[in-house]
Amino acid sequence: xxxxxxxxxxRQGGExxxxxKPRHYGNSRKGGYHHGRNGKSFGxxxxxxxxxxxxxxxxxxxAKQEEKLSPASEAQESKPATENRENRQAGEHxxxxxxxxxxxxxxxxxxxxxxxxxxxxxxxxxxxPNEIPSNTGFIPEPEPERKYMFDYDPExxxxxxxxxxxxxxxxxxxxxxxxxxxxxxxxEFIKGEHAIVETVRGVEYGEVALSNKMVGESEVVFPLKPxxxxxxxxxxxRNIENRKLEENAKPIWYEKVAKNGxxxxxxxxxxxxxNAKLCFYFTADGxxxxxxxxxxxxxxxxxxxxxxxxxxxxxxxxFGGLGSCGRPFCCNTFLPDFAQVSIKMAKDQNLSLSSSKIxxxxxxxxxxxxxEHDTYEREYATFPKVDTIVDTPKGRGVIIESSFLxxxxxxxxxxxxxxxxxxxxxxxxxxxxxVREEVSEDLKKLEDK
Length: 449
Fold this sequence. Notes:
By secondary structure, the protein is an alpha+beta fold. 28% of the residues lie in helices and 20% in strands. Among the domains are: 2-67, no CATH class; 165-231, no CATH class; 238-310, GMP Synthetase, Chain A, domain 3 (2-Layer Sandwich), CATH 3.30.300; 388-432, SH3 type barrels (Roll). α6 (233-260) crosses α7 (291-301). It starts with a helix and ends with a helix. Mean pLDDT is 75; it is low at 24-35, 40-50, 69-78 and 121-130.
């Protein structure tokens, strides 16, 4: 209580004391300075305990300092600034800026855009674009001619590089129609001659099916093995002896197979030309464990034994024969490899789906069904197929038979169920009937598994 009374007396007497001591004004919170959010003071602010008279004195001193710093301030000071100061001293407040004119009346405006004077023809002729003072000694390069959209030089079409060729000779062996390429070296071969070559199985005796010829490297499988020599009379005689030895080996095969209790059907026996290997070709219903059979055969023939299981198509290729067309089997004469054949190929060619008519001697679908399949697919892409709904001049119907070879299409009419023949140009395709194709089990067995 005593301290408060002393402080009040000091304030009334004009002395700035606190608890009987002079009050210090420093940069601390106790000094009475107003601090901002970040702890910084607002400069020349009065302490909290200052009275209204002190505030007025502070405002007058600040105005005097401004007059000292800028003696010509009265002339430069704008009218709104003086009005605002008088209002603040009188305790009134007036906004400095008008909302409708936030930037004040002294807003800087851009100078109006001046239109450039149009260049006359005389001015253009006076100054050339490439004109440079002669004292510089610089000679400009001539500008390239401008090329417009269609004014250009066409790019040259790169020429295809010629494929490298290699000289080969084609040789066919006795167990198939496939021709294998060999490097003839400096030997000239004639079709029909015989030659001795080295293959994966060993030294072989083959017939020349293609004389010396240059073919592209893409048709050759590298490395290309060379031909050892032309077959001599001794080679011909030895080949005949090997055929006799092969026939003598068959009874021994049947004896050893029966001894081991195996179910294997012998197809062919083949000796290599140098008698280094004896190969037995057989068929069986499933996998066969023939390890003991190989030991028994090796003890008799005293050479390397090879057993190779083949399929029914390979069997027909080795045996040969005549097909339903009256010609030799395609696989035994000219087909190098077997291609996939399906029942769909027979349907597309409008063939009878009878197993006896579309199967060959091997019990599988005939290889010749594949020959014309690509042609039928290409033509039927633009020709109406069977089970197509069409609109005809005599009504609507469904195609039951279609042949692009004759150009005739048989249509079963919807109104009277009669069958009528039309041309392709007379029909308008409307859609397809979804028919569930059911294939019998007998036909499925004809396809390759």
